[in-house]
TrEMBL record:
The gene is desV_1. It is an enzyme of class 2 (transferase). InterPro entries: DegT/StrS_aminotransferase, PyrdxlP-dep_Trfase, PyrdxlP-dep_Trfase_major, PyrdxlP-dep_Trfase_small. GO terms for biological process: polysaccharide biosynthetic process. It comes from the Bacteria. The active site is at 203 (proton acceptor). Belongs to the DegT/DnrJ/EryC1 family. It comes from Paludisphaera borealis. Pfam families: DegT_DnrJ_EryC1. GO terms for molecular function: pyridoxal phosphate binding; transaminase activity. This is DegT/DnrJ/EryC1/StrS aminotransferase. Its EC number is 2.6.1.106. The modification N6-(pyridoxal phosphate)lysine is found at residue 203.
């Protein structure tokens, strides 16, 4: 409960202040502009535009960063998931256990290999896969378990890996939002057979365009991934299986190689901002995100829940605070998956999150003043909602 006395005076956007952006990639770029341009110029001068030394250098550096033996760069996080499921042995008629509270690309990859996504709900405290539901969904057609490290927090991997071992089912991690996250001191993406990352520009580690990667500790899997991404060429013009044009471009490898050096500092900035949000919003009638005690959250997104989400977002926008929405329709209720026969109520936690979630601005370059404006403005709006 908040009181009128605890709320700030009305905070209209001041004439000398622009809106608080949801994300500010321009400011981030300005700080490393010279390095980025030099790296891009070197790629252009070298005239190797696809794969090549810049991609190989990034692969080696990112593998070291997460503590994996191998990293294979590809052209998107979606492609990373697709290739990882192929390498896990998933194919037509198979089933993959995953969650409906995620970006739809998680399920796209399952569908791309001809398999069926089998959903389990998420846990409301962490917003990641509810491991208590997994085992009961396993059938003789289950070929993989695909947890999502949502919003920057790892799923509870210990029990999932144990279930996988007990049933002989590989675990493939969707770590698209979890660069540098950890579960019991192990890096997200390194615990299962494969870990799949996205480097979409808005990610904690973002390219200047589309890019992704798969990490693995299995040398045979890594070798197959490298072949599959390049038209399945074991050697030039020899194609042993169906392959794909999923190669990472050299420009993206160059950009990612520069940005990776700053990622840990950016992550610590996000963690500090998340702590300030937790303190500043603690007394408000919001369901705030939490960091599990055995995990390291990297706060790709700071997602709160409120039953009047849409009204709150509109009021924030009107007062100069931009927000995001991740994600308003769970995958099981998307038209593309209508054939699975799910209905509203099948996964109540995911559906509640979809109805009530909204993402507050959080990015490494965010100033205390910007964040204070978010907190103060949201406090006032919630007071208005409560007393309306």
């Amino acid at each position: 409960m908040i009181s009128r006395d605890s709320a700030s005076a009305t905070l209209e956007a001041r004439p000398d202040e622009g809106p608080v952006p949801f994300l500010d990639l321009k400011t981030q770029y300005a700080g490393i502009r010279a390095e980025i341009l030099q790296a891009l110029e070197e790629v252009a001068d070298g005239a190797t535009y696809v794969l090549g030394p810049r991609v190989a250098g990034f692969e080696e550096a990112f593998a070291a960063f997460v503590g994996a033996r191998h990293c294979v760069g590809v052209n998107s996080g979606t492609s990373a998931l697709h290739l990882a499921l192929i390498c896990a042995g998933v194919g037509p008629g198979d089933e993959v256990i995953t969650v409906p509270m995620t970006f739809v690309a998680t399920s796209w990859a399952v569908s791309y290999v001809g398999a069926t996504p089998v959903f389990v709900d998420v846990d409301l405290a962490t917003l990641t896969m509810d491991v208590r539901q997994v085992e009961r969904r396993i059938t003789n057609r289950t070929r993989a378990i695909l947890p999502v490290h949502l919003y920057g927090q790892s799923a509870d991997m210990g029990p999932l890996l144990e279930i996988g071992r007990r049933h002989g089912i590989p675990v493939v991690e969707d770590a698209a939002q979890a660069h540098g996250a950890r579960c019991q001191e192990r890096a997200a993406g390194t615990m299962g057979l494969c870990g799949c990352f996205s480097f979409y520009p808005g990610k904690n580690l973002g390219a200047c365009g589309e890019a992704g990667a798969v990490v693995t500790n299995d040398a045979d899997v890594a070798a197959r991934l490298r072949t599959l991404r390049d038209h399945a060429q074991g050697r030039r013009y020899h194609h042993g299986e169906l392959g794909f044009n999923y190669r990472m471009e050299a420009f993206q490898g160059a950009v990612l190689g520069i940005k990776l050096k700053y990622l840990e500092g950016w992550t610590e900035a996000r963690r500090r901002l998340a702590e300030r949000y937790q303190a500043g919003l603690a007394d408000l009638p919001l369901l705030l995100p939490t960091e599990a005690t055995d995990r390291r959250h990297v706060w790709h997104l700071f997602v709160a829940l409120h039953p009047q989400r849409d009204r709150i977002r509109q009021a924030l926008e009107e007062r100069g605070v931009q927000t995001g929405l991740h994600y308003p329709i769970p995958v099981h209720l998307q038209g593309a998956y209508e054939h699975l026969g799910h209905q509203t109520g099948d996964f109540p936690v995911s559906e509640r999150i979809a109805r009530e979630c909204f993402s507050l601005p959080i990015f490494p370059e965010m100033t205390n003043r910007q964040q204070d404006r978010v907190i103060e403005t949201l406090t006032e709006i919630l007071l208005e909602v409560e007393y309306a």
